[in-house]
């Protein structure tokens, strides 16, 4: 990588963010693609967010990625949102189009692109059961609906069911896809909905400790069920380990991380990220 007077910048904006793997992914992509760009991490307080967004225009940057806790609060500073970002109510990518700042959410795209790349799985005309209703779950729910899922079963904590139901109704009206909301505490109901599904997703933080299990120990997983977890540290959660012990194809969240970045890179540069090369480097880094 050679930085000169023509180098354009991109950045990830969050707090904290210095641990992020995004600079590695994007700088590798800039270098491998021969694009004169550099990607850095901006760890900023919320009171500096508006000025940081204005800097995208000021310095003619490619754009920025947005991570927590700024995915919602950044929206008033943008000129436009794409459909997924509008429905989700959160932005993870800002694209500078000749001074117009457009907000996108590429998380759901990245998740489903990773599944398709892995074994050709697509959610179109299939039933998805998802555990969780937070930010990660919402991006997957919206993208699944936009991708033409047949039906989406959403399990969230009882205290958040009313809010989740309101969101589900909005997504159903916008996409025509059937969404149903249930309490995640009801393992019998989870079992019932799993048996009708082709895709089961854990979008909660359960399992991040490497010990906790989001499903009951005796949960039946039907043959052919595709299983995925948004968690990638640890690389194999108890949820994924259980699915694999039943002979099922199961993926963690590392692919989602890569392909959401790849979409952002494409939006900024109009070029494809060399994902195969970067995946090999990620496998080394995470000792896959």
TrEMBL record:
Its EC number is 1.1.1.25. GO terms for biological process: amino acid biosynthetic process; aromatic amino acid family biosynthetic process; chorismate biosynthetic process; shikimate metabolic process. The active site is at 71 (proton acceptor). SUPFAM superfamilies: Aminoacid dehydrogenase-like, N-terminal domain, NAD(P)-binding Rossmann-fold domains. NCBIfam families: aroE (TIGR00507), PRK00258.2-4 (NF001315). Involved in the biosynthesis of the chorismate, which leads to the biosynthesis of aromatic amino acids. Catalyzes the reversible NADPH linked reduction of 3-dehydroshikimate (DHSA) to yield shikimate (SA). Belongs to the shikimate dehydrogenase family. This is Shikimate dehydrogenase (NADP(+)). It comes from Streptococcus sobrinus W1703.
């Amino acid at each position: 990588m050679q930085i000169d007077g023509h180098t354009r910048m991109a950045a990830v904006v969050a707090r904290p963010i210095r641990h992020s793997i995004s600079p590695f992914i994007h700088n590798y992509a800039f270098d491998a693609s021969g694009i004169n760009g550099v990607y850095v991490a901006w760890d900023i307080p919320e009171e500096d967010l508006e000025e940081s967004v204005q800097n995208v225009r000021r310095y003619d940057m490619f754009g920025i990625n947005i991570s927590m806790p700024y995915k919602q609060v950044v929206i008033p500073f943008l000129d436009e949102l794409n459909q997924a970002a509008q429905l989700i109510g959160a932005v993870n990518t800002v694209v500078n189009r000749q001074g117009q700042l457009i907000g996108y959410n590429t998380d759901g795209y990245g998740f489903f692109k990773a599944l398709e790349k892995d074994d050709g799985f697509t959610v179109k005309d299939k039933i998805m059961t998802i555990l969780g209703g937070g930010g990660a779950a919402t991006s997957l729910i919206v993208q699944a609906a936009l991708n033409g899922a047949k039906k989406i079963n959403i399990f969230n904590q009882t205290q958040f069911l009313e809010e989740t139901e309101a969101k589900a109704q909005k997504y159903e009206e916008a996409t025509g896809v059937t969404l149903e909301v249930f309490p995640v505490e009801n393992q019998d109901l989870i079992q019932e909905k799993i048996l009708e599904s082709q895709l089961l997703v854990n979008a909660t933080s359960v399992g991040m400790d490497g010990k906790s299990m989001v499903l009951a120990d005796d949960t039946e997983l039907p043959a052919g069920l595709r299983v995925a977890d948004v968690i990638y540290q640890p690389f194999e959660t108890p949820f994924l380990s259980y699915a694999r012990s039943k002979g099922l194809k199961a993926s963690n969240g590392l692919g989602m991380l890569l392909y959401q970045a790849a979409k952002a890179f494409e939006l900024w540069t109009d070029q494809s990220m060399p994902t195969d090369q970067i995946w090999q480097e990620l496998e080394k880094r995470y000792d896959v």
